[in-house]
Amino acid sequence: MITLGHVFAALTDYQPRGQEPALTSVVIDSRQAVKGSLFVAFVGENVDGHDFVEDAFRRGAVAALVQRPVARSYHTVRLRAGDTNGEGLAEIPASPLCLLVDNTLDALQRIAAYWRRRHHLTVVGITGSVGKTSTKELTAAVLSRRGRTLKSEGNYNNEIGLPLTVLQLNARHRYAVLEMGMYATGEIATLCRIAAPAIGVVTNVGPVHLERLGSLEAIVAAKQELVAALPADGVAILNRDEPLVMGMAAHTAARVFTYGLGDNGDAPRADLWADEIASMGLDGIRFRLHYQGATLYIRVPLLGRHSVHTALRAAAVGLNCGLSWDEIVTGLQDRRTQLRLVAVDGPRGSLLIDDTYNSSPESAIAALNLLADLDGRRIAVMGDMLELGAAAEQGHRMVARRAVDVADILITVGPLGRMMGEEALALGMPASHVHILPDHTAAAALLATVIEPDDVILVKGSRGVHLDQLVTALSTS
Questions:
Q1: Which whole-number Å values give the CA distances from 446 to 95, 364, 436, in the listed order?
Q2: Which of 25, 209, 316, 357 has its CA 20 to 30 A from that of 302?
Q3: Contact, 121 vs 151, CB < 8 A?
Q4: Mean pLDDT on 7-36
Q5: Which helix (H) or strand (E) holds 394?
């Protein structure tokens, strides 16, 4: 367990002698502080964590990382550049204790990097435009069959969340599976310096974040930072079906391992590949795996044909960590890994397919493909896909073309969603079957009047459209 002594060693290369109070947790929200916590005070756009140091101490925190003095006079050790206050301490001062640093985010990352280096385990980093979280969950389920596995929780995939996850490592962990997101170039490289992954998995590259990064080439460069950071004895697991991902093979010193789908009976293109894929609707998918001349038939409780790629990624990690096929298949069949796309009961005997976590053209089409596999009248509720930048119109119209083939009724939500509705009308979908609506409230009101028994309703959109509130309203009505 990490101690205050480790924190001093990470920040000063000097570890005080004497008692080293163990830290029960490292938190960035004072309300989560408990006895023995370390509180990290961040300065945000709207909230300054320094204003809550006293609250954290009141709840039991023993120390706080701060980058400016706080209002009350607590014992403070100065650890800024040029300070020597933290060196030469015979013992750690009594709590509550403030550790004054130049930048609390940088300090948190340095502590996490130090803590990671003290543990001998295999770290798997996962990045890509779509499918990071589902891949992380399934990979962790597979690796946990062999040993204790730490994984990123929730949205802890950024410059704050990943260090907080790493600080949960202990000597019993054999693996860590860490999701790596990014908003700009250089961020994944920073995460890799902290986590030191030996295995890197890249799912795909799409126009998500195009609005911020400006081009697909910039997105590739940002995601590529993961494979570039891998050691020579590491493994880069790349999607053979994605040319932009395969181009990353030239930018890593690690061994490249590929996964993908078979090509209509042609020679396989990937090290690990699947064919004979069949969706069983809400009962999952089945497919045939091929690896080094061996063939294996698998059925897993994942929804949608696109989940085959997810299963391939997790299996690839398992194979490269030396797991047996029995361990890998057991992990792939863990029903707890189906997090994003779930089926819930709707009004009047209908079925709601809730895929409201986020959206992109690729994931929206994958969700529509699942809808096509289900029986009943099909209703697609499609919301704005955000952060697509210059690719927004093309992406929304592309999704509309698939929706016209699949859905009996199309409901679009939001100003970008309007483009899907307009495209559907232009393609000849009857006007009575297309509803262009401004927000989730209007969509919920319409659905309450049109849903019939045995309808299947797909709800898909970016988080900013709040379609999750529509699902909540319908599933509780």
A1: 58, 21, 11
A2: 209
A3: no
A4: 86
A5: helix 392-406
Which residue carries 């927004």 as its tokens? 392
Bridge partners, residue 299, by sequence: 286
- Cα 162 to Cα 30, 71, 314, 401: the distances in Å are 19, 30, 20, 38
Long-range contact pairs involving 106-110 (C-beta distance under 8 Å, separation at least 24): 107/11, 107/40, 107/65, 107/79, 108/26, 108/40, 108/65, 108/160, 108/163, 108/164, 109/159, 109/163, 109/190, 109/194, 110/10, 110/11
Nearest-Å Rg of the Cα atoms of the chain is 25
pLDDT tens for each residue of 104-127: 999 999 999 999 999 999 999 999
Q: Find, among 469, 282, 456, the residue nearest to 383 by Cα.
A: 469
Encode pLDDT of 307-323 as tens digits.
899 999 999 999 999 99
> What is the greatest pairwise CA distance in the chain?
80
- Between these two residues, 342 and 310, which has the higher pLDDT value? 310
Torsion angle, CA of 342/223/462/339, rounded to 10 degrees? 10
pLDDT for residue 268 is more than 60: no
Rounded-to-5 percentages of helix, strand, coil across the chain: 40, 20, 40
The encoded tokens of residue 273 equal 């590949």
Interatomic CA distance for residues 2 and 62, integer angstroms: 13
Distance of alpha carbon 451 from alpha carbon 189, whole angstroms:
48
pTM of the model: 0.82
| Helices and strands, number each (H, E), in the chain | 16, 20
Average pLDDT for 240-250: 94
In this prediction, residue 370 has a pLDDT band, given cuts at 50, 70 and 90, of confident
The CA distance from 98 to 112, in Å, is 18
Mean pLDDT across 260-266 = 68
Tokens in use for 169? 């490592």
Helix orientation angle between 325-332 and 132-143, rounded to the nearest 10 degrees:
130
**With contact defined as beta carbons under 8 Å apart, do 117 and 97 qualify?**
no
Helical spans, DSSP H, in 252-355: 307-320, 325-332
What would the two tokens of residue 150 be? 């730490």
In this structure, which amino acid lies at residue 187?
E
